[in-house]
Design a protein that fits this description.
This protein is an alpha/beta fold. It has two domains: 162 residues, D-Maltodextrin-Binding Protein, domain 2 (3-Layer(aba) Sandwich); 127 residues, D-Maltodextrin-Binding Protein, domain 2, CATH 3.40.190. The chain contains 13 helices and twelve strands. The strands form two sheets. Strands 1, 2, 3, 4, 5 and 11 form a six-stranded mixed beta sheet that branches. A six-stranded mixed beta sheet has the order 8-7-9-6-10-12. It is globular. The N and C termini lie far apart (49 Å).
């Protein structure tokens, strides 16, 4: 374990992105307030390795902090539920769930696996589809296509239900994989399409808002527990402050994203998502059974009724 007073935070987002900028500002504020007793250093752009490696290092105690995306399903199955397609239609409803009782369940699952999760998640946003082959106007247009998607069973099941395949490459390798046409398209919020310049390697943007994703700031529980309570309080306060600022940053970027991507040359259309939902009956039945009635009720208490 490195010197307990010098901790590292790894994340996959580009250094110039709102997420990495706010993480750096958070670290600077923490370092200033702790007067040299504690130092947090931020490593964006997967500089400490792709997400699976950073997550494994976090669990092993070789990394103290990690900004996790859709990598938690194996250790915290409940964490997948907010990613259910078309469960949520606005970010503030997701935040209510994740800052509240649904988030408490996820944080308890993570704690049982040696991970301290901070209460306020960071925003990634609602996903849309980009493609190089054809626009996605309705569910039929997904047939036979292969999408780069965040890892996890929900993503794989969703695309399979619509006749498509989902594959995974690390975030840092997505641009090159799309340029090489290893995938026909990808799923991400508009801010990611802009920051990774995916408009250079993708022709079509189809607005679907099919699911929401965010980032969970995690600490290795033993490393976190080794900090004096006074330092923990400084970290907690700033983690909340900069998570809330980052949420607003990303909301603004995503809100303006379609217009900006059209200006940059992408062909933009709004997909008929009712045609997607019409094919998800079995998908929802399967995930309802996996979640169990109690967790499904808790999810619907925030999201409203979820059905195909």
């Amino acid at each position: 374990m490195p010197d307990a007073k010098h901790y590292r935070l790894g994340l996959n987002q580009l250094a110039g992105s709102p997420t990495a900028r706010r993480a750096a500002e958070m670290a600077q504020a923490i370092n200033t307030e702790t007067n040299g007793e504690f130092r947090l250093e931020v490593f964006p752009e997967s500089r400490l390795g792709p997400d699976p490696k950073m997550f494994a290092d976090l669990r092993a105690g070789a990394l103290e902090f990690f900004m996790a995306g859709a990598t938690l399903g194996e250790v915290a199955p409940t964490s997948a539920l907010p990613l259910l397609p078309f469960a949520f239609s606005e970010s503030k409803a997701v935040f209510a769930a994740l800052d509240g009782a649904l988030g408490d369940r996820i944080r308890n699952e993570l704690a049982a696996n040696g991970l301290h999760a901070f209460r306020h998640c960071w925003q990634n946003g609602f996903h849309h589809l980009t493609t190089s082959t054809r626009p996605i106007r309705n569910a039929d247009d997904l047939s036979g296509l292969k999408f780069r998607s965040p890892g996890g069973a929900i993503a794989a099941d969703f695309f399979k239900s619509l006749g498509a395949d989902a594959g995974m490459v690390p975030f840092s390798g997505m641009y090159e994989a799309l340029k090489a046409r290893n995938f026909d398209g990808q799923s991400d919020p508009l801010g990611v399409v802009l920051s990774l310049k995916l408009y250079e390697v993708q022709t079509y943007l189809s607005l679907t808002a099919h699911w929401w994703s965010g980032f969970t700031l995690l600490a290795n529980a033993a490393a976190w527990g080794a900090l004096p309570r006074a330092i923990q309080e400084v970290v907690e306060r700033n983690a909340q402050k900069f998570a809330l600022l980052q949420r607003d940053d990303i909301e603004r970027v995503n809100d303006a994203g379609a217009e900006e991507l059209a200006r940059l040359g992408m062909q933009v259309n709004t997909a008929d998502t009712a045609s997607f939902r019409a094919r998800l009956g079995d998908f929802y039945a399967s995930w309802r059974a996996k979640a169990g009635p109690e967790m499904w009720r808790l999810l619907e208490s925030y999201a409203g009724e979820i059905r195909g």
